């Protein structure tokens, strides 16, 4: 008799999910912070250096610097700011959603140390000794004199204001701490005389510098365009001024005068800051990338839902519900964490759907297997859930290890990917395991699904009779395959491909991105189709030599330009302004110094090594050392093929590819562990294995039993990765390509390589060490 109450409970839960998601999803997505690559902005990594020799950069100095940066950013009205201290003496600044990136960049980089000098660049001191102008002296050596230097320390903190002069010209006013000190200074400058030098410069000009550096010369800069000058004003001083107000005059607009007042009030930096790494994204680029990637994600997820419902029927429908809930919960958790959603983060969310469905596939395959064996629907449901739980747990932990390593060693955008991946693993375990079990369990326990194997995609003619002792034969597409018999062919194929790939890597090499080689990269978005000749002509106009130009985009409207050198910020500003005027969209620009490039290479090697060691330790604890070593060989095999195909295709290999490799490392071991778990289970049923043929039979049977799971899992994740590759933003095209290659290689190695290697290795030891399963508490597998 059908228990309708459970079915009613199912639909009530379904209505609750739909209502909750429908009424809150808009608010959740609205509150999620978008990264620089989705809304535009820039990120700069600074190395902090002392102003004077002998000064120490400690935590206190770094925190004071961060406080000053925040005050400056606040003056621009930027709300989404993230300034972090990185050991030993670095500061990372991220500003999102700003209109004038160059202005903000200049605001950050200037130390804002105000100084007052004569026209021959001599510091003005507070004492009674008159100044001597050395401008016409051939030696050009300024006189030295005792006394306190008059500079920003003599000004009242926070006193800068934008005001207007007699002719309504905008200017900036400052308050001095001592009117008498300022009177002494002005008296000395006025004493230089109201005449002109042989160069036509006023002798009694008091030059006010912002960030004067040794070697700057007023005589040279006064002839430059106003925007290129480092001094901000050079008023004439004709008499002794007994006042507490200093006026900084110049050809200011109201906005320029206000900005100068703001930066002076924000305070000078107690350090010098050198750019090590920078990346900027134009708002149009960010919007286009987000729209395209979301579109690709929707298609990928829709294909996963459709495939699950066609292949697994009713349980596939349940999986689609829990996966929808999974996506919603991911966004809620991410919003509560105040996480920053990046382009790779969206990719991680989409891939997470493919990986989350893996838990459903493992469980549903088990349930189908139990139904085929002749068990009732309820017994099959209980046995399937019970036997799949440990496998799902092992598979998720290995992927989690790789994600944690990725977060520890990745750059900011890669950290966004890793964060989303970590959240996905936890949430998918809850929804795919417990959520699916709850919803499907309501139908199973209602008895509606009794004697209806078609709802699980099982035909009645394949169901065995348990009472007659019939057993389910491991078959794929109705046939038996002997994978073990052909192992030497698979080994030979892998060795041949490794040699081929190694040859390309050795002789052709990788097309390394600036992340690893240092240099600069500019990405231009045009309003029409462009060619390499078009881009080169523009850079020739700017007087800049390009190294490599690549045209991409659906309409051939994106140009990527590489430079061996790290472009100066002024050069980047010139490039941005030129192409914004030309095409109406501000280009993206990235620079990586040699220091950071070397660190990224080192961190990439560390990340892969640490992930591998962590997986070896975990698999050894859960299984045995032989399983652990062969799984690592398989994942290195998969990682190698990603690298080899990048060498063969010549695609750019950047830091996001390392993220893809580590993702595949976790996924490949995930797939391999499912097979190993089934081998372990079959060894337990056999209890004792003494011959190679017995072991080979168990391995082959295990491969047959898990093959459908391996194929279905890779298909669902490949659906997501392929859609990102075809329809996603160009900035993650190579990343998506690496994922597709890695997914296919991971499935191949799990079926044809890892288990076969374990068989050969462990089988060669059977004469000395027969495999005997001994039941022990807290043990993960077969014990000898």
UniProtKB/TrEMBL annotation:
InterPro entries in the record: SecD, SecD/SecF_arch_bac, SecD/SecF_bac, SecD/SecF_CS, SecD_1st, SecD_SecF_C, SecD_SecF_C_bact, SecDF_P1_head
Alphabetical keyword list: Cell membrane, Membrane, Protein transport, Translocation, Transmembrane, Transmembrane helix, Transport
Major localization listed first in the record, in broad terms: membrane
Domain Protein export membrane protein SecD/SecF C-terminal: 272-440, 585-762
Stretches assigned to the Protein translocase subunit SecDF P1 domain: 63-120
Role of this protein: Part of the Sec protein translocase complex. Interacts with the SecYEG preprotein conducting channel. SecDF uses the proton motive force (PMF) to complete protein translocation after the ATP-dependent function of SecA.
Pfam families to which the protein is assigned, alphabetical: Sec_GG, SecD_1st, SecD_SecF_C, SecDF_P1_head
Protein source organism: Pontibacillus marinus BH030004 = DSM 16465
Single GO biological process annotation from the record: protein targeting
Protein name as annotated: Multifunctional fusion protein
GO molecular function: protein-transporting ATPase activity
GO cellular component, one term: plasma membrane
UniProt topology in membrane: Multi-pass membrane protein
Record-stated family: Belongs to the SecD/SecF family. SecD subfamily.
Quaternary structure and interacting proteins, as annotated: Forms a complex with SecF. Part of the essential Sec protein translocation apparatus which comprises SecA, SecYEG and auxiliary proteins SecDF. Other proteins may also be involved.
Chain ranges of the SecDF P1 head subdomain domain: 159-271
Localization terms from the record: Cell membrane
Domain of life: Bacteria
Transmembrane segments: 293-310, 317-334, 346-367, 388-409, 421-444, 490-510, 604-621, 626-649, 655-676, 711-729, 735-761
Signal peptide: none
